DNA sequence: GGCTCTAAAGTTTTT
DNA sequence: CTTTAGAGCC
């Protein structure tokens, strides 16, 4: 490992490992590099084992990238044992192993936001509350913010957020919250917030479990610490309490998730929390030109209460930001398209190095139109992901039901899809009995007589037929892999017949999507099989899918494309050329956040993030009128434009003033200044390789593995000590024959008990 | 119980 | 403008 590639402050941050440390990493200051080297250093110099290191990131993508880079330095066989991933992914894994302690089955399912809202909606209805007042999204956000603060239903009182409910005229949130939790439990399910919340509860109620993980994780690293919430803070506090070896990396200027419960005070008060902690500041920006860094600095200077730091660049001076004004959103989009074409024509830039950033997804539409008519290939991140599509959710609901029949939301989705004559009336009856008896809907539906369900014989038969077929497919879970099960299920459920019977375009695309899903599952299964010699369970697959984000799926069809996404989605990324569009009041900053100073500060940080994505060029645009919610509104330019140092901002070809970067190079503004805004030649239409929306295909995200002295073996016997390339050391406790050859059960020291197929398992005999 | 038509409402940002 | 939800009809 060549630590000489680091600068002094980076080096210091990497090499200090005796106690807690806070690394304040300015934008583009090589934060990922520090994390990568630090983990490598811990492995190679400090001598920690991979599984003793927990590294938490904000996105799956970040985890994967860092892991890959570490793998390049220490080899994949070590890198893959690292406990690395998002908070949610890591702690859901932990909860699956420890689920017995918290009264949940290990096959619990994860409710996504849509499931959670549906459940809330059902509860509101059952409680006979006004559905207009108690909007599921509002209630869920109240519950979510309570959970982020670790406030359980019993503690949910005036001091803990309930007074706000009264102000909002939704006083019954507490009751809904209580019932919501009961129903989740009844369904053997948890929502996103529970993954953190329940882990905290587990640690509080079972100190011995906490201790186990405290002992295991000798070192904890956290990326993007500025975006952690209180529940995450508590988890880290608990886990690090024993060794106090925790390193958090972040940038208070890039905290943009307060709306989701992120608490910037976590990073601001870290030093008070750990008085013995060391502070490291990474202030040199290696990414951007001087103009870009100065522009970003001048903007963020308007925020109060920041951790003092001075981000600077030793790169080229570059060009000032260019501000462009348009009459309408349509003209704005065309201006961006023309700028892009001009950059391409002049060979200044390639498409893959350009990105258009906007505040809200809805802004992408006009841009898409413009790009299409100009023949610019593009791709969009965000919006509806593959797994959110109705048909895919329906298919996944069946899979969930197979894994966990108690899953209420999955049950409600499946029971009458495809239509089998079981309507709302029946479902409500089933639900009522289930709730009074405190059992799952599935159980009631499977035994209508035993539960005295007041339905006629025909309906009872339909219910039992349905549950029977689910049970029957579920029997296959033992010896079939996720792919086979899904295929069988699509057939058995009647989904396939239903789609193929109708010959409209919708059914056609639905079927294509299902095939796409099947393909994704096949790849996921094969990959895991190849790497671990063990077929992943359906439950594992489902958890993985539920935690996937759009940012995690990246299709590469070889066509170079300009990228479009929200500013939030761009966090952590970099491009040569960045367009930030829609810099208008009530859009950026958004209406909702425009009312409070904290809101404005968050929006300002958001723009800071946007500008600092750029390596070479940044364009800021706004329109004087914008079409929104079916109406054209007149808009005024964002207040943030005026906050950027005029010396860094060029308006329509005229630079406002020369900028003195403290010395020398007087010639810098004679070059690189922008020419006027002349209209570019007409659009090139048709014939080019344009595309509307990149089809997001499911992508297995299992880590890349490779062998290192591991191989498959012909035979083993019970009691044999083995070393598995992923799971580490273990003892064979059982050997049996199956259709796929011999199957062995191994008790691993650090990975629990696993079932492996002998012909695939890459192991060493000890 | 299922389908179709009409009306209303909605647009941050995401694990 | 688009999408979803509800009412009413078959």
Explain what this protein looks like in three dimensions.
It is a single chain. This protein is an alpha/beta fold. 42% of the residues lie in helices and 16% in strands. The protein is built from 28 helices and 24 strands. Strands 11, 12, 13, 14, 15, 16, 17, 18 and 19 form a 9-stranded mixed β-sheet that branches. A hairpin with a 2-residue loop joins strand 16 (614-628) and strand 17 (631-634). Helix 5 (87-98) crosses helix 10 (192-205), helix 6 (113-126) packs across helix 9 (173-186) and helix 10 (192-205) runs parallel beside helix 12 (230-240). The longest helix has 28 residues, at 505-532. It starts with 7 loop residues before the first helix and ends with a strand. The protein binds a DNA duplex (15 and 10 nucleotides) through residues 58-60, 86-89, 113, 192-193, 195-196, 256-257, 259-260, 359-362, 382, 416, 419, 421-426, 546-547, 549-551, 566-569, 587, 590-593, 606, 627-631.
């Amino acid at each position: 490992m060549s630590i000489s590639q680091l600068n002094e402050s980076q080096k210091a941050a990497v090499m200090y490992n005796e106690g807690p440390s806070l690394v304040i990493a300015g934008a583009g200051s090589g934060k990922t590099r520090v994390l990568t080297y630090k983990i490598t250093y811990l492995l190679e110099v400090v001598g920690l084992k991979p599984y003793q290191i927990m590294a938490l990131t904000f996105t799956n993508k970040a985890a994967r990238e860092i892991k890959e880079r570490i793998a390049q330095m220490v080899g994949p066989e070590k890198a893959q044992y690292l406990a690395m991933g998002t908070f949610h992914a890591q702690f859901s894994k932990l909860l699956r192993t420890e689920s017995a302690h918290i009264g949940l089955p290990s096959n619990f399912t994860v409710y996504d936001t849509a499931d959670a809202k549906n459940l809330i909606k059902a509860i509101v209805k059952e409680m006979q509350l006004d559905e207009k007042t108690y909007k599921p999204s509002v209630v869920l956000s109240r519950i979510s913010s309570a959970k982020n603060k670790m406030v359980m239903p019993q503690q949910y009182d005036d001091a803990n957020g309930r007074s706000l409910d009264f102000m909002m005229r939704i006083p019954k949130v507490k009751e809904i919250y209580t019932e919501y939790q009961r129903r989740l439990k009844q369904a053997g399910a948890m929502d996103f917030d529970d993954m953190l919340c329940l882990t905290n509860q587990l640690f509080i109620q079972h100190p011995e479990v906490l201790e186990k993980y405290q002992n295991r994780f000798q070192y904890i690293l956290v990326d993007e610490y500025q975006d952690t919430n209180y529940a995450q803070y508590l988890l880290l506090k608990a886990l690090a309490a024993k060794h106090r070896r925790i390193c958090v990396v972040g940038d208070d200027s890039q905290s943009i998730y307060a709306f989701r419960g992120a608490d910037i005070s976590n990073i601001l008060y870290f030093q008070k929390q750990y008085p013995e902690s060391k502070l490291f500041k990474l202030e040199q920006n290696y990414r951007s030109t001087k103009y870009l860094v100065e522009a970003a600095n001048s903007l963020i200077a308007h925020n109060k209460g920041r951790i003092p730091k001075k981000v600077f660049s030793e790169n080229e001076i570059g060009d000032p930001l260019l501000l462009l004004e348009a009459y309408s959103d349509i003209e704005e989009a065309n201006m961006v398209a023309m700028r892009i074409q001009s950059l391409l024509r002049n060979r200044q830039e390639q498409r893959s190095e350009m990105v258009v950033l906007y505040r809200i997804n809805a802004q992408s539409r006009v841009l898409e139109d413009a790009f299409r008519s100009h023949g610019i290939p593009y791709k969009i991140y965000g919006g509806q992901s593959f797994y959110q599509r109705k048909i895919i959710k329906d298919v996944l609901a069946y899979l969930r039901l197979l894994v966990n029949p108690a899953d209420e939301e999955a049950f409600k989705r499946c029971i009458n899809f495809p239509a089998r004559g079981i309507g709302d009336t029946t479902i409500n009856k089933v639900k009522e009995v289930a709730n009074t008896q405190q059992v799952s809907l599935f159980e009631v539906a499977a035994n209508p007589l035993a539960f005295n369900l007041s339905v006629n014989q025909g309906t009872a038969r339909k219910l039992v037929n349905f549950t029977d077929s689910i049970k029957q497919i579920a029997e296959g879970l033992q010896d079939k892999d996720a792919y086979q099960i899904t295929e069988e299920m699509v057939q058995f459920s009647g989904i396939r017949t239903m789609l193929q019977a109708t010959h409209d375009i919708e059914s056609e695309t639905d079927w294509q999507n299902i095939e796409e899903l099947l393909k994704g599952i096949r790849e996921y299964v094969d990959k895991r099989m190849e790497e671990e010699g063990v077929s992943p369970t359906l439950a594992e697959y489902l958890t993985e899918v539920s935690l996937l984000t759009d940012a995690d799926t990246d299709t590469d069809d070889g066509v170079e494309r300009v990228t479009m996404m929200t500013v939030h989605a761009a966090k952590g990324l970099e491009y040569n050329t960045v367009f930030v569009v829609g810099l208008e009041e009530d859009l950026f900053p958004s209406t909702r956040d425009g009312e409070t100073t904290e809101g404005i500060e968050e929006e300002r940080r958001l723009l800071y993030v946007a500008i600092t994505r750029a390596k070479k060029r940044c364009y800021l645009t706004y329109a004087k009128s914008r079409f929104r919610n079916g109406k054209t509104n007149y808009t005024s330019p964002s207040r943030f434009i005026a906050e950027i140092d005029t010396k860094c901002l060029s308006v329509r070809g005229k630079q406002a003033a020369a900028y003195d970067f403290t010395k020398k190079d007087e010639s810098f503004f004679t070059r690189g200044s922008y020419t006027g805004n002349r209209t570019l030649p007409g659009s090139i239409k048709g014939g080019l390789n344009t595309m509307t929306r990149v089809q997001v295909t499911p992508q297995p995200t299992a880590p890349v593995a490779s062998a290192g002295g591991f191989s498959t073996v012909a035979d083993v016997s019970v009691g044999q000590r083995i070393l598995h390339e992923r799971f580490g050391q273990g003892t064979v406790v059982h050997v049996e024959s199956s259709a796929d050859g011999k199957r062995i059960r191994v008790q691993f020291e650090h990975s629990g008990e696993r079932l492996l197929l002998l012909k695939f398992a890459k192991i060493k005999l000890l």
